[in-house]
Family 20 glycosylhydrolase (Gallintestinimicrobium propionicum), 618 residues
Amino acid sequence: MYLIPAPAKLEKKEGRFIWAYDRYVTVDQSCSQLVTRQASLFCDGAEKELGYRPLLTRGAAQAGDVVFKQDDTMKAQSYVLDITEDAIVLTGDEAGLWHGMQTLLQILEQEGACLSALHIEDAPAIVNRGYYFDCTRGRIPKLSWLKQLADRMAYYKLNQLQLYVEHSYLFRGMTELWRDDTPLTAEEIMEFDRYCAERGIELVPSLSSFGHLYKLLCSREYSHLCELEDSEGKPFSQTGRMAHHTINTSDPESLQLIEGMISEYMELFTSRQFNICADETFDLGRGRNKEAVEKLGKDRVYIDYIKKLAQFLLDNGRRPMFWGDIIVGFPEMIKELPKEIICLNWGYMWNQREEETKWMYEAGAIQYCCPGCCGWNEFSALNWYAYNNIMRMCTYANKYGAIGLLNTDWGDYLHVNHPDFTRVGMIYGAAFSWNSNILSYEDINRQISRIEYRDSSENYLAVVAKIQENSGYDWNVAVRYWEMKRGLHEQDEVSVGLMKERIGQMDNIDQKDANLKEIARELYAQIEQMDSSKRALVMPQIVAVDAIRIFNQIGKFATADVLGCTYENMPDSWALAKELETWFYFYKRVYRSISEESELRYIQELVCWYGDYLRQIK
């Protein structure tokens, strides 16, 4: 039997508890009303595993009951679970009881109605264990999918969620921001906030307030607040949206605007925390703030603006958070910010070093360590890369006393990755932030295959792991080449350099595509090994495999054009165009199954452009 996260202590006992159809789940009088509501959610889950719903009551327990008891003198988020032949008793503080219920559900899923006797004592290594999902750069998920995400987070004992928002919330009166999009509404966010709270998850608002505010600062109404002039006249590009659009901090109207947006947005959440982001301020001092930066220094201009936003949040009863990529260059300045502020220290390399975490620790920062699920710019998530990154950042979090782990899932370049794929990285973060005894890549993948994908062979993720080895012309390069050929030349040098850097991935490309066809066959074969409730997760993964294979072949033409590369076998360009467009029909079906339209149109523009491009080749 596997449990994710692994409990801190588990002792097996003799005997089995038979969960008969007439058993009661009894919520002790000591339990809060929240625990009572969560017990009902537990019974929903138990019914799916048992085939019949346990009886639920509140009050004094009787012999043979499954009993939940609340003891708030216990360590925060801790629980003790005892399963004997005669009863099940789960004891914990309010949050710990909910986590213990998830452990019990995982046991039910694997053992059915005959549960092995055992004793578990459990508590998390890191108190705040979060997930960060990009709802801005290409994909806005449906509320129904967000609720499914919250359910899976709770199942693995995560307790914090943030949604990245720049323009993708329907701000009142700011119609230029969302007029061509499908934004989240206030009602949806408030409903989702309630849904999360009942599942032990704090939904923390996150709003970009400084860098890459491309929709805001390209609008006619607010473009005058951009650091660089004439931002509204520049053509849209995926590279440009992330590289520019820093707000002009020297204009008092900028602070007034951002504070107004924060004021509207924060009232939708029960959380008393707020992430102002403030990362990647690439253009600061290159335009309207040039004189101020030359006089005061970029660090001073940056920190003064952060200080004002942080104080505004504190004055409104919220604890501020911000990304740490800028301040890590001058960590001692953390002392100038309010003592309550949380620095979100991110790093996404597979071999991520610990120096940044150490510097912020030595400077006295309160910090979260923030790794990544490594799905951005990919059709299929890089799970090996994510495993190593998350494992290291969890280790640094424990070593340097970080109060949280926030595992990020970004959507760079249109969030082409199907969000269900990065669930694996999410589970890595949940497992390693709860229990610092980290399993090997192969072992954790086998367990996730069994628990999350209900794969009896425990081999599903071993098949998926082969995919990343066979990518050649990846999505990042495909987007950059598309923009370069359309005359968006700002980053041509970077794009060509990236293509040269990745050209090694095109070696043996025909063999890679043959491998991908075999991987697709293996994934089809895995369907037999999976529970029927999880089989729908396989088709999107096969669609992603086909995308990688098709773009690998497209990459032959692109690299021949830019770098003069030659290949022994060139595909029929017209046949390849038709294969691409057929694939895209199914990709759109997968996309729309969980996401609003949002920026799907840009992906469609790219696919249609490549189809036309291929038909022009003789």
Observations:
- The longest helix spans residues 538-563.
- DSSP finds 21 helices and 15 strands in the chain.
- Residues 57 and 112 are 22 Å apart (CA to CA).
